[in-house]
């Protein structure tokens, strides 16, 4: 059976067996339990994660301690704090596990080495990065333009499985609405 | 004198004279007058622009015809509708000139050819794309977290020259506040 990471990468570029082994050699595997952290505010993030199984969230806390969710992560998704990882500056966000998670990660130096030595992987991540940027642009459009009702419906259409796996209060913290508003939308 | 595009690219990667000539050969120059469009809603965007001189805005119109500004562009900035350009789908936004503009652009096919044949340029745009993603993430954090007063102050610190070049109503349309609110913040 093809390695799930290889299947994922080959959606964008094709790799020989040798090339995939070389790529995989730059990753490590890690398991985390529900509620454990991958990233905490203030640290310099050294790893980009790819989700083998499980579900995570990235979020920040405002001055009142309220949680605002930036991104969820599930199987086949990449997750890290890109600002901290790319610029090697302290993180403004947290990432923790909503379910037990199996992850692969690549550290900063290995990612630099791999992309510098292998044009194909530079191309793969460039594409991923472009898609991430597009998703964020659409999120901004949606935050500026749509009512919470429309934002809820769009999320439900885009990621139906999220609603089975993630508590309602987290959906509310992603959409930027109160739990009470969400309950009304949900009826 | 070094070509401004070369100076810009060499902030991230270094190029020989021959390499820069090869890169430049993939671009065309274009001039636009104030109020002219580069992108209109519904079209499939074929070009990514780099600003030699002038000032532009990208924005979308909501159902009430209200303008929401996504991004400004000035000297040395890249601007296009990335969703439409990357996925070759119809654009949801407009881009037009706030001032007369001189621009370089690269079309979709040339950009694909250039990045496929030249690892350095793939790396350059990958870096640009990562930085764009980080800027959008910070904009989302700011929209979810900060008051309009704080958002105004952050924009003023980050891009002081915008406030000389761009009318107040556009600053308001970027921040997502009314012109009246902006006038109060401005006092």
Model description:
- Two copies of one chain form a homodimer.
- With 187 residues, chain A is of the alpha+beta class.
- Chain A has a domain at 4-118: Jelly Rolls (Sandwich), CATH 2.60.120.10.
- Chain A contains nine helices and eight strands.
- The first copy, chain A, has helices at residues 4-9, 17-24, 82-87, 108-117, 119-145, 148-158, 162-165, 168-175, 179-186, and strands spanning 27-32, 37-39, 47-53, 56-61, 67-73, 78-79, 94-97, 101-107.
- Chain A has a four-stranded antiparallel sheet with strand order 1-8-3-6.
- In chain A, helix 4 crosses helix 5 and helix 8 packs across helix 9 (179-186).
- Chain A is globular, with a radius of gyration of 17 Å.
- Chain A starts with a helix and ends with a helix.
- The interface between A and B is medium-sized, with 33 and 33 residues.
């Amino acid at each position: 059976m093809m390695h799930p990471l290889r299947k994922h990468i080959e959606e964008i570029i094709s790799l020989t067996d040798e090339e995939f082994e070389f790529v995989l050699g730059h990753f490590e595997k890690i398991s985390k339990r529900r509620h454990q952290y991958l990233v905490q505010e203030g640290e310099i993030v050294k790893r980009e994660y790819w989700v083998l199984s499980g579900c995570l969230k990235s979020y920040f806390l405002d001055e009142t301690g309220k949680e605002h969710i930036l991104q969820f992560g599930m199987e086949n998704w990449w997750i890290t704090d890109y600002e901290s990882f790319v610029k090697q500056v302290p993180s403004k966000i947290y990432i923790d596990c909503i379910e037990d998670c199996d992850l692969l990660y690549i550290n900063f130096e290995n990612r630099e080495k791999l992309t510098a030595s292998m044009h194909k992987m530079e191309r793969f991540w460039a594409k991923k990065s472009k898609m991430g940027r597009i998703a964020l642009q659409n999120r901004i459009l949606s935050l500026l333009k749509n009512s919470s009702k429309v934002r809820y419906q769009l999320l439900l259409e885009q990621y139906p499985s999220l609603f089975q796996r993630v508590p309602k209060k987290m959906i509310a913290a992603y959409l930027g609405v109160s739990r009470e508003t969400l309950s009304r939308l949900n009826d």
